[in-house]
Structures are given as structure tokens and as C-alpha cells.
Amino acid sequence: FAGVVYNYDQEGVHRAGSGWEQCISIPLVQPDMWELLQQWDNLLEEFSLEEAWLPHRYQEQQHNCYTFALAFVNRVRRARGRGALSKAQFTERFLLPRTREASRYLTLHQQLAHRDFYIVPLAEQEQDS
């Protein structure tokens, strides 16, 4: 994937094009929502400039990067006439399935790597078949 990652910490909002290679990507928009996909970057940029995300407002436990992400998702949901998600709902619906999947993959990778197996990427033409 190519793109920019927005994150929020005690220094405010950051935009980074690299340094997040080990993160887990969680799709939040259905592929058929073309209009929303086209607006996403602009909506996120506008949202990140709001006063709520100034550095002095950051609080490690209550107003952090998770809060930033959830508030943005809920802003988009409300604009589309949908209800806001609680932290628990957001975690259960979006985060847990992807982290479980990543955990299973990492466990399998570790088991294979420690049992004299070689993990070799498929050649490009084999991946397409």
C-alpha cells in the first residue's frame, strides 16, 4: 500500500509516508463506496487541523491517537447518517479481527522459521494464478 499515515501524540498530528511498514492496515470503507474513498484524504486532512487535536490537548489515557482515529471514523459515519461507534464496538468490529489474523500469521511464521523450513516469496507470475 502507498499512502500517508496520520497519527496524534503529545506533539500534535503527524503525517508520515514511511515508518509504518510494520503496522496493520484495517479497511474501514467498503470498496463500492467510491465517492467516500475519493473524499477520504480531504476529510482526514480537515479533521486533523481541528482545535481538538492540538498538542496541548493530548492526554495519554483519554485523548490520544485511538481517540483521534475513532472520532474521525464517527465523524464520517454521522455524515453518512449512521450512528457513532463506542470504543468497545470499534475495537470489536474493526481492530480485534485484524489483530487476531495478524497474531495467527505471526505464530505460524515463527513456528515455520524455527523448524528448518525456508519461507520463500512466490515469483510474481505464480502469485497471479
Quick summary:
By secondary structure, the chain is mainly α. Helix content is 48%, strand content 8%. The protein contains four helices and two strands.
Verbal overview:
InterPro entries: MKRN2OS-like, MKRN2OS-like_C. This is MKROS protein. It holds the Pfam family DUF4796_C. The chain is mainly α. The chain has a domain at 5-84. It is built from four helices and two strands; from the N terminus they run ββαααα. The chain has helices at 34-48, 65-79, 87-113, 124-128, and strands at residues 5-9, 12-16. The protein has a two-stranded antiparallel sheet. β1 and β2 form a beta hairpin.
Question: SSE order, as H and E?
Answer: EEHHHH
In the sheet with the most strands, the strands line up as 1-2
Radius of gyration of CA atoms, rounded to a whole number: 18 Å
Q: Which regions have little confidence, pLDDT < 50, spanning 5+ residues?
A: none
Major sheet description? 2 strands, antiparallel
Basic shape: globular
Which structural category fits the helices and strands?
Answer: mainly alpha
Q: Would you tell me the overall average pLDDT?
A: 88
N- to C-terminal distance = 21 Å
Number of strands: 2
Residues in helix, %: 40-55%
| Count of helical stretches | 4
Task: Report the β-strand fraction as a percent range.
Answer: 5-15%
List the helices and strands and how they pair.
Elements: E1 5-9, E2 12-16, H1 34-48, H2 65-79, H3 87-113, H4 124-128
Descriptive terms for the model:
single chain; about 130 residues; mainly alpha; two-stranded antiparallel ribbon; 2 strands; about 50% helix; globular
